[in-house]
Design a protein that fits this description.
heterodimer; A: alpha/beta; Rossmann fold; four-stranded parallel β-sheet; 11 helices; globular; disordered N terminus; B: alpha/beta; 18 helices; 55% helix
C-alpha cells in the first residue's frame, strides 16, 4: 500500500482536492500517500482509534519511516484530514506541513476563497523550492495532468475492480516518465456490473472481494478511484490570477466527495453513473469513522431506491482482514441482481 | 427510583410529536418553571429557563420562522433578523438529560445511520424522523466545530423540504478571510429576512439591537470570568456547563444579557467557596444524563473551576457593522482551524484559572474533539498540567462505562491529591 516517496523533490498529498497542477508547477513531484493499513494502531499515541483508518494509516507509516520526511500538503476537507495535519505538524515540525482550505459550497464566494488558497499555496511552495509558479508553468502542468487523466480512463476501460483501483492509485503516484507502467489494459470480461461508491478503499481488501464474488466493477466512485479522473480540471485564462480562479472553479465542480454541501448533485451523478455503465446495482463501501459517508448513506439509499437501483452497504477498516466474511453477502447481492 | 426516572418511565414512551404542538403543554411547562417547586441553583438560571422555554414554545407553535442552527451559528444573526433560533444539538442534550436519548438514537440507527456517528446528531436525526422537531424554515450550519452538523442537517433538510445553508469560515489568518465570511453572513441575513419579512432599515435596526445586547452580555460575561479567576467562587463547572446554551444560543436577546448580569451579581454576593479543593478544568462537553463522575469529584474534594466552552473569545462588536463583527466573532473561536488554537485556548485557561489538573471527556463519534485530545493532552502536560482522557458519550447513556471511568478517575484524583499534599 505504501506510496511513500523515496527521495528527490517529492511532496506528499492525501486528499483528491489537492491541486496537483500547482504542486507540479512549483517543481515538485506529488506522491499520494496511502499509508500502511497493517500498522495503523501505532498512530494511537496521537490520534484516537475512532478516527478514519486511512488517516491513521498515513500517520502510522510516516512515524515508522526513518525519513527523510518530505513536504506534505493537506486539505481542510474533513475533521479527520485536519486532525492528520495537526498530528503531522506536531510530529514533523521541521518540514513544510501545509493546510489548504476547502469550502463546502460552490459558487462565486467559494471560488474566490479557493483561488486565494491556491495563490497562497503557490507562494508557500515557491518559498520552499525557489521555483515561482507562473501562468505558463501552471498551464503546462495542467495540460500534462489532463493527458494523464485521459490516459487513465483509456487504460482503465474494461479492467476488473482491483486492477482498476490499483491503476488509479498508480496514476496518483509519481511517474517520472509520465505514466505508470505494467497495469491495466486487460479485458477481464464478465461478471455482474456494479458501481462502487464510497470514500477510499484498499484494493486488496473489499474491492478484490467484489471481483472474487463475481462482480464487474464498472465505475469506482472513490477518492482513490475514478472520481479524481471523472472531469477535467484544465483551467482557462491568461494570467495567473485568472488561472487560479478557473482551477478553483474546476475543483469545486468536479465529482464531489460527500463532504460537499450539494448532496443532491452527488446522488444524481451516482445514478447517472449507474445508467451510463449499465450497472445493475451499487455497492456503497466506506471506511469506518468517515462522517461524510456515514451521514450520506441513508439519503443515497433512499435516492437509489426511488430509482429502482439496489444497493449493498459494506464497511471497511482499511486492512480488510474480514473481507472474506463479507463475501457471502456480496454473492447474495449479486445473485439478486443477476 | 427518583422522580425524574419515575416520570420518564411513566410518560416517555407515550410522548407524541403533537404533545409539543399543544398550547396546554407549554402553559404547563412554563407554570412548572415559575413554580416555587422549581428552585434553580442560580437566579440567572430562571432567566435562561424562561427564555429557552419561550423560544422553544414559539418554535413548536410556529410563531415565527424557525432556523435550525449548529453550535457556532451566531444567535445574534438569527434573532436580529426576527427569526427563532433552534439548536438541535442542545435539544439532544435536553433529551439526554431526560433519559430519553436511546429511544431516538435507536430510531436513527433503524434509518441506516451508523452507531459510529455522533450521538448528538443521531439523536436529532431520530427526533426528526419521529416528528418531534419543530419544522424549520431553514437549516443553517457553519463548517465548524465538526463535520456532523452540516451533514446531518442535509438529511433533515430533505425531511422537511427546507433549504440548507452552510457558511464556510475560512481558516484563521487568511487574507480576505474576514471579508469573504462577512459576505456570506450578509447573504445569509438576506435569506433570513426573507422569512421574517424584514426589510432595509428593519434589518439594520434588528441586527444593531442584537449586537448591542450581545455586547452587554459580553461585558457581564467578562465580569463572571474575572470573578471565577480571582476567587474560588461558588459557581461549579457542572452548573456552568448548563450555561453553554446561553453563550451559544441566546446572545442577541435581552435574556442573554440579563443572565450574565444576574450571574455576575450573584457571584459577587455569594463570595468565596473556600480554597482547599483540587481545581480542575473540564474539556469538551459533559455527559448530560445522570452518571457518577461529578459525585466522584465531590467525594475527592475536586471542583471544576473552568470549562472549555463557557468563555468568550471575541471582543466588543460594532452594531453599525454587524457582518464584519460577527465574522470576527466566528473567526476568533478556538475550534476554528488547526488544533493548536484549541490547545492554546485550553493552556491559557489552565494558567489563568490555576488548575491542578484537566479532564478531557471524549465523546464517541466526535472526530474534532477526540481527534485532537492526545495533542491537547500533550500541550497541557508540557505546561505541567496533568491531564486525564476519559472515553464516553455525552448523549447515549448506554455507552457510559461507569466502572472503568470511575476507576481511572479515582486514580487520577488520588495522584493529584498526593501532588497537592505530599506525605
Amino acid at each position: 500500500m505504501s506510496g511513500a516517496p523515496a527521495g528527490g523533490d517529492l511532496v506528499s498529498w492525501f486528499c483528491t482536492y489537492t491541486p496537483l497542477e500547482i504542486l507540479d508547477a512549483a517543481g515538485l513531484v506529488p506522491a499520494r500517500r496511502f499509508g500502511d493499513p497493517a500498522s495503523l494502531e501505532s498512530s494511537d499515541t496521537l490520534l484516537h482509534p475512532a478516527i478514519c483508518p486511512y488517516v491513521r494509516a498515513c500517520l502510522a507509516e510516516e512515524m515508522a519511516g526513518g525519513g527523510p520526511h518530505h513536504p506534505a500538503v493537506f486539505v481542510n476537507s474533513c475533521d479527520g484530514m485536519r486532525r492528520l495535519y495537526d498530528a503531522w505538524k506536531d510530529r514533523f515540525r521541521d518540514d513544510l506541513v501545509y493546510l489548504v482550505d476547502l469550502p463546502r459550497n460552490t459558487g462565486a464566494g467559494a471560488e474566490r476563497l479557493l483561488s486565494l488558497e491556491f495563490c497562497r499555496l503557490a507562494r508557500a511552495l515557491a518559498g520552499l523550492t525557489g521555483t515561482e509558479v507562473t501562468a505558463e508553468g501552471l498551464q503546462e502542468a495542467a495540460h500534462a495532468r489532463e493527458e494523464r487523466r485521459l490516459a487513465y480512463l483509456a487504460a482503465a476501460d474494461g479492467t476488473s475492480g482491483e486492477t482498476r483501483l490499483r491503476l488509479a492509485m498508480g496514476f496518483h503516484a509519481p511517474a517520472p516518465d509520465g505514466m505508470p507502467a505494467g497495469l491495466g489494459g486487460e479485458d477481464e470480461g464478465g461478471g455482474v456490473p456494479v458501481v462502487l461508491t464510497g470514500n477510499l478503499l484498499n484494493p486488496a481488501g473489499l474491492v478484490a472481494g467484489l471481483d472474487r464474488a463475481g462482480a464487474r466493477v464498472a465505475w469506482i466512485d472513490l477518492c482513490n478511484g475514478d472520481r479524481a479522473f471523472a472531469t477535467s480540471t484544465l483551467p482557462e485564462g491568461e494570467d495567473l490570477d485568472g488561472l487560479f480562479a478557473s482551477l478553483a472553479r474546476k475543483y469545486l465542480e468536479r465529482h464531489p466527495c460527500a463532504r460537499m454541501a450539494d448532496a443532491g448533485r452527488r446522488h444524481d451523478l451516482l445514478v447517472e453513473a449507474v445508467r451510463e455503465t449499465g450497472a445493475r446495482g451499487v455497492v456503497y463501501a466506506s471506511l469506518k469513522f468517515c462522517d461524510a459517508y456515514l451521514y450520506d448513506f441513508p439519503a443515497v439509499q433512499e435516492k437509489l431506491g426511488s430509482e429502482g437501483i439496489p444497493v449493498l452497504r459494506l464497511e471497511s477498516d482499511y486492512a480488510d482482514g474480514h473481507a472474506g466474511q463479507v463475501l457471502t453477502r456480496v454473492e447474495a447481492f449479486l445473485e439478486m441482481l443477476d | 427510583m427518583g422522580l425524574v426516572e419515575s416520570i420518564r418511565d411513566r410518560f416517555a414512551d407515550r410522548l407524541e410529536p403533537s404533545t409539543f404542538r399543544s398550547r396546554f403543554f407549554w402553559k404547563t411547562a412554563e407554570s412548572l418553571a415559575r413554580s416555587p417547586l422549581n428552585r434553580p441553583q442560580w437566579k440567572a438560571d430562571r432567566v435562561s429557563l424562561s427564555h429557552f422555554l419561550a423560544i422553544t414554545r414559539d418554535a413548536y407553535l410556529g410563531k415565527g420562522p424557525v432556523v435550525w442552527c449548529n453550535l457556532l451559528v451566531p444567535s445574534e444573526l438569527v434573532l436580529g433578523l426576527g427569526c427563532i433560533p433552534f439548536y438541535p444539538e442542545m435539544a439532544a442534550a435536553v433529551v439526554a438529560s431526560a433519559g430519553m436519548g436511546p429511544r431516538f438514537i435507536d430510531r436513527a440507527t433503524e434509518a441506516g445511520f451508523s452507531p459510529d456517528a455522533c450521538s448528538f446528531h443521531r439523536c436529532t436525526l431520530g427526533l426528526s424522523l419521529e416528528g418531534f422537531m419543530p419544522e424549520p424554515a431553514m437549516l443553517l450550519a457553519v463548517n465548524y466545530p465538526c463535520d456532523s452538523a452540516p451533514l446531518s442537517f442535509a438529511f433533515c433538510a430533505d425531511i422537511f423540504g427546507a433549504p440548507q445553508v452552510t457558511v464556510d469560515i475560512p481558516l484563521p489568518g487568511r487574507r480576505d478571510g474576514r471579508r469573504l465570511l462577512a459576505a456570506q453572513l450578509g447573504e445569509t441575513a438576506a435569506r433570513l429576512a426573507s422569512f421574517s419579512g424584514r426589510r432595509g432599515h428593519e434589518i439594520e435596526r434588528g441586527l444593531a439591537k442584537a449586537i448591542d445586547l450581545s455586547n452587554q452580555a459580553l461585558h457581564h460575561l467578562h465580569e463572571v470570568e474575572q470573578i471565577r479567576k480571582r476567587d474560588d467562587c461558588t459557581l461549579d463547572g457542572v452548573d456552568a456547563m448548563g450555561g453553554i446554551s446561553v453563550l451559544y444560543g441566546s446572545l442577541g436577546s435581552r435574556a442573554g444579557a440579563d443572565f450574565y448580569r444576574l450571574l455576575a451579581r450573584e457571584l459577587r454576593e455569594r463570595g468565596c467557596a473556600g480554597g482547599d479543593s483540587i481545581r480542575l478544568m473540564w474539556m469538551h462537553i459533559k455527559p448530560w444524563y445522570r452518571q457518577g463522575i461529578f459525585g466522584t469529584l465531590a467525594r475527592h474534594g475536586a471542583r471544576l473551576v473552568c470549562e472549555e466552552y463557557t468563555h468568550a473569545t471575541w471582543g466588543t462588536m460594532d452594531p453599525r457593522d454587524p457582518y464584519d463583527s460577527l465574522a470576527a466573532k466566528l473567526e476568533s473561536h478556538f475550534l476554528v482551524g488547526p488544533v493548536e488554537r484549541r490547545a492554546s485556548h485550553l493552556a491559557t485557561l489552565a494558567e489563568e484559572y490555576r488548575v491542578d489538573g484537566a479532564i478531557h471527556y471524549n465523546h464517541w463519534g466526535c472526530r474534532q474533539s477526540c481527534g485532537g485530545a492526545a495533542l491537547v493532552k500533550q500541550a497541557l502536560q508540557a505546561r505541567g498540567v496533568p491531564t486525564l482522557i476519559l472515553d464516553g458519550d455525552c448523549v447515549d447513556e448506554r455507552e457510559y462505562q461507569e466502572g472503568q471511568i470511575s476507576t481511572r478517575l479515582e486514580a487520577f484524583l488520588e495522584s493529584l491529591d498526593s501532588r497537592a499534599r505530599p506525605a
